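Structure first, sequence second, as always.
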């Protein structure tokens, strides 16, 4: 079952209005299919599941906070936000920049206009930096969704029922240690990138302390 169908199943189980269900379901478009395909092709299952969960957490917090966003755009950015960590899309730069550049190319190839592809690329780059008030709603929700999944930020704001459904659909599969290993590899090879500063500031300990089993 594709992740789009998983998310539609999640939406129908929640006490949500029609608009919220549409946002969680994700439109079945060429861009959404291609982003998911690339994510699955190049990522480990643990990393791919992180991308799916990041969309779900960001969408659930968006609904909770009353944020209006574009479901297709957020989904595509979520699926592609960590491809810079994979050998296929590691171009030797900082992984968030490599991923943003690759995402822009992928989404342009499936027919997105340049401005729309740039919005997704910006969200991918910013999830490792700082999202400001003038940045897109999709950048905000990608940042929130990844923060929930990586370090447990605002996990308590997601009720137990949808939390359990998301984790059941997209299990973590040892994500904490796997993600730390990916970060450590990036930091060794690219000491001038922000991932090095993250590790130096104790991010590995924060990842291990997040409120998930693995």
């Amino acid at each position: 079952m594709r992740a789009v169908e998983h998310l539609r199943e999640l939406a129908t189980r929640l006490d949500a209005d029609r608009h919220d269900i549409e946002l969680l379901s994700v439109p079945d478009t060429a861009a959404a299919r291609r982003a998911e395909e690339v994510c699955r092709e190049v990522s480990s299952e643990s990393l791919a599941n992180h991308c799916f969960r990041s969309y779900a957490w960001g969408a659930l917090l968006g609904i909770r906070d009353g944020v209006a966003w574009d479901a297709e755009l957020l989904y595509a950015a979520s699926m592609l936000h960590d491809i810079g960590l994979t050998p296929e899309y590691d171009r030797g730069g900082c992984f968030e920049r490599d991923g943003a550049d690759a995402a822009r190319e992928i989404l342009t190839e499936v027919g997105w206009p340049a401005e729309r592809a740039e919005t997704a690329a910006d969200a991918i780059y910013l999830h490792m930096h700082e999202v400001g008030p003038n940045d897109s709603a999709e950048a905000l929700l990608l940042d929130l969704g990844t923060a929930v999944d990586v370090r447990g930020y605002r996990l308590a704001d997601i009720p137990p029922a949808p939390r359990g459904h998301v984790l059941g659909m997209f299990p973590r599969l040892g994500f904490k240690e796997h993600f730390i290993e990916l970060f450590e590899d990036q930091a060794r090879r690219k000491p001038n990138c922000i991932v090095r500063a993250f590790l130096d500031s104790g991010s590995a300990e924060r990842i291990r302390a997040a409120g998930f089993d693995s």
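Margin note: The chain has a mean pLDDT of 91.
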